[in-house]
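Section 5: illustrative case.
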């Protein structure tokens, strides 16, 4: 983003900086930005991997330390469903809500991208799509 500001500032007047300086500083800023983005991606993937390993090891430890009577009285399906039931239920409820309310979904997507829609003069297309969804 700084590279965009640099280009905007440096090109306001022709004699502020030379073309070589303009291109050199722009390339340096883009390179630094790329390095920071790559570092962020590596850091986040490392953190995600470490978190997943700790979660998995914690689950394995809990299972191996549980008494045998727990497994005798609890079906394996109940053990497995405890981990995924709540998140799956939320996701299914969200999908059902989107499926039942395409008008609201289209409206929210249109509001999110309203600047893009206006920039490309696509207001009529989105209006027609909204009216089609209302009629259906």
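Designed sequence:
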């Amino acid at each position: 983003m700084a590279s965009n500001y640099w280009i905007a500032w440096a090109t306001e007047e022709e004699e502020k900086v030379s073309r070589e300086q303009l291109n050199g500083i722009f390339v340096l800023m883009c390179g630094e930005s790329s390095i920071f983005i790559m570092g962020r991606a590596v850091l986040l993937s490392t953190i995600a991997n470490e978190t997943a390993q700790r979660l998995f090891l914690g689950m394995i430890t809990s299972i191996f330390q549980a008494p045998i009577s727990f497994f005798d009285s609890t079906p394996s399906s109940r053990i497995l469903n405890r981990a995924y039931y709540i998140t799956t239920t939320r996701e299914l409820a969200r999908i059902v809500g989107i499926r039942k309310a395409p008008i609201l979904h289209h409206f929210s997507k249109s509001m999110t991208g309203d600047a893009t829609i206006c920039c490309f003069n696509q207001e009529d297309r989105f209006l027609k799509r909204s009216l089609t969804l209302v009629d259906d």
